[in-house]
């Protein structure tokens, strides 16, 4: 018997695919956002796998929580060191080729992890992964700016950033089950092989866009209307922050907000040297707060994805099989949060809420910190589960409008370097988080078989997350003039 279809004979899977494509804005947009989401999924899948196989790694390699945290943090540390030069590449070279090379290196790192025979070998594979990790953030941010109009970037980012959550879920579910059935080595090998497929898809399916808005993809476009990958990557001259579609810059212009003349560039932003551009980016008040806030959010997320499996198994005394059934529940909540976060902020923007892209993340961070706390201290899984799910949705909802806001306040010619500056702090936070969570948990007496140390570590780390929300909310006073200034600058 064939698969059930609709009245036109189309199978159910095809109808679902068509609906997803329509939801994402048509075939061209769907292909672009899904490929970029796949890139962001890779690192999260690796980190999620480490968390999923944590018990096996601690047993087989005879390591403690702190050493496990170091394993997760070293790749982020290496990425933080190497990402600034990558930002220059994102602003001046072919970005799709950089992504393809990055994914190939990622694949090799994961294959190396699967073949590791010692803790040192596994640690070195994560060092190689970190060198590739540096490219993802700057290149993806620059591509988003040149693929999607300003007023729709929150929505696009919502889907793209869901890749981070889906990747972490794949690492937790697939990695954990594969490790339980076979070995933790096969979990990494599976990721390595899958990464090669993504590299091929990127090379064939994502042409290099022109800079300055000439390649924005319209709704319903059947094919990506881009130049091929042999084009001059520095083509185009307008700042991507200059809107033509009712974006935040257009609203601010109509409201009569004036740019800050002392920060209005008199030369093309793309031509600034690395250190001049870093100085300029750090002179933007809103940008300073947003990159710090983003880093704090990822600090908590990095600790969470590394130790969540161990904590839940030991706090609630459940098996890997039961946990595998619970992870999708929390994961669906987080994905709903990241997708809706961008959409709702963009919708508020269309209704005239100029500061929606900074107010929404502030409430997301605050709500997450308040909701996680009772879940962590609960001794009953069915009380903690809904709290964790809603808290994960709130935490995830902050990132899409936050990332879209950073594109709003930076001239288009500096998008890659702006993301590199942010990525330095973000990856530094991600590098510090797992060791910090692990060592605090050990110091608080959790031991290797108790959850109390990890619980207390998570509770302590909720405090900066709450402060984070307050800091982001304050930027509603500086955000409008920073957007106006970026729109005045030449890309």
Word description of this protein:
The chain is built from 18 helices and no strands. It has 491 residues and is mainly alpha-helical. The protein has a single domain (23-211, 272-488), classed as MFS general substrate transporter like domains (Growth Hormone, Chain: A, Up-down Bundle). The longest helix has 32 residues, at 285-316. The chain is globular and about 60 Å long. Mean pLDDT is 81; it is low at 225-244. This is Major facilitator superfamily (MFS) profile domain-containing protein.
Main attributes of the structure:
single chain; transmembrane; 491 residues; Growth Hormone, Chain: A; 18 helices; mainly alpha
Structure, briefly:
With 491 residues, the protein is an all-alpha fold. It is built from 18 helices and no strands.
Give the structural class: mainly alpha
Whole-number count of domains: 1
> What's the SSE pattern?
HHHHHHHHHHHHHHHHHH
CATH C-level class: Mainly Alpha
Outline: globular
Low-pLDDT residue intervals, each spanning 5 or more residues:
225-244
Question: How big a fraction of the residues is strand?
Answer: under 5%
Specify the biggest β-sheet: none
Q: Residue-averaged pLDDT, rounded?
A: 81
- Number of distinct helices: 18
User: Which CATH architecture is right?
Assistant: Up-down Bundle
**Fold-level CATH name:** Growth Hormone, Chain: A
Question: What's the total count of β strands?
Answer: 0
- Helix coverage percent: over 70%
Radius of gyration: 22 Å
CATH superfamily: MFS general substrate transporter like domains
Distance linking N and C termini: 58 Å
Keywords: Membrane, Transmembrane, Transmembrane helix, Transport
Organism: Rugosimonospora acidiphila
Transmembrane segments: 71-91, 98-121, 127-144, 156-178, 184-203, 289-312, 318-342, 354-373, 457-475
Domain Major facilitator superfamily (MFS) profile: 32-480
